[in-house]
Write a structure and sequence with these properties.
Layout: H1 2-7, E1 13-15, H2 26-33, E2 41-42, E3 71-76, E4 79-84, E5 93-95, E6 112-114
Antiparallel strand pairs: 1-2, 3-4, 4-5, 5-6
């Protein structure tokens, strides 16, 4: 995954295609793509304001807010950490073997292998522990 997403691209991705699913079981590919196949497309035709060659973006904790990003991803050996820009201090780690047909539109239902890390900033509020499926819900103050 790291080679495909990071190492083998010069600048970035315009669209990830079904080649990302090479080697996946056919029923997974069909469920995710409806049986369609298309290649990934890189950002090859970028023009910079000053005419210099485009360069890969470097995103750090201090530059993320200025780059108009909605999500960040950290590839880890045991899964992918998904960090929403609104909560840049941490994100849950979703296992690499998670079923990709999971409804990822609801982050509280993600199949995580590690909870969100505690924020590193001393002024940030602590991240609540993820709810264990099937466990009773606790009351929340609003």
């Amino acid at each position: 995954m790291t080679r495909h997403l990071v190492d083998d691209v010069a600048v970035g991705w315009d669209e990830l295609g079904t080649d990302l699913l090479n080697g996946a079981p056919p029923e997974i590919v069909t469920a995710l793509t409806g049986g369609d196949h298309w290649p990934s497309r890189t950002l090859d035709h970028l023009i910079t304001p000053d005419g210099s060659p485009p360069a890969r973006m470097t995103v750090t904790e201090s530059t993320a807010a200025d780059q108009d990003l909605e999500w960040g991803y950290v590839l880890r050996p045991h899964g992918i950490e998904v960090i929403p820009a609104l909560h840049t201090a941490s994100g849950p780690v979703v296992s690499w073997d998670a079923d990709p047909r999971t409804d990822f539109s609801n982050p509280t239902a993600w199949p995580t292998v590690a909870p969100a890390r505690l924020p590193t900033s001393p002024t940030a509020a602590p991240t609540p522990a993820p709810r264990v499926p099937g466990a009773p819900r606790t009351a929340a103050r609003r």
